[in-house]
Amino acid sequence: MAENKQRAIVGLRLVKTNWFLYSTQFNEESWKINSADEYEAKKIHRDPNGTVIWEEDYYYSGRTFLFPPDKGTDWENVTVNYDYTKHLLTVSYVGVDPSITRLFGGSGPIIQMTNNMSIADEILKKWGISKL
User: Fold this and answer.
1) Is-contact 54 86, C-beta < 8 A?
2) Is residue 108's pLDDT more than 70?
């Protein structure tokens, strides 16, 4: 939680006192909003001294789709990654909603990427999910 001030500046989800630290392995923390959640809400990767190198926030729409076609289903989601060493933000979308893939300038399904946080905000608003 010591890094929450920096997270707020970047626009990342804050780690709250009631969150559940699900696992720590190889300097990587996996956080859930509560212990009953199926998926993690955030991963934080630290160097051996405890300094954050990168972190990712995960948001799920609750919808599934075939990924790749005819190979099984996957959850539609948005990932926000911030690399503290490069000061680089990446927003990724995994899904097939054409109204969302167009936000990334793409027309095809599955994985789209950008460094524009406002796109993540727009998708989350569409899904009725609060970013923070």
Assistant:
1) no
2) no
pLDDT in tens, 52-95: 999 999 999 999 988 666 778 888 999 999 999 999 999 999 88
d(CA 82, CA 89): 5
Give the separation between CA 48 and CA 40, rounded to whole angstroms: 22
What's the mean pLDDT when you consider all of the chain? Answer: 89
Distance CA 121, CA 125 (A): 6
Dihedral class, residue 120 (left if φ above 0, else alpha if ψ from -120 to 50, else beta):
alpha
Distance (Å, whole) CA 47 – CA 38:
27
pLDDT of amino acid 65: 84
DSSP letters, 68-115, are: STTS-EEEEEEEEEEETTTTEEEEEEEE--HHHHGGGT--SSEEEEES
Residue 52 and residue 113: Cα distance in Å, rounded? 22
pTM of the predicted structure, to 2 decimals: 0.89
- Three-class SS of residue 14? coil
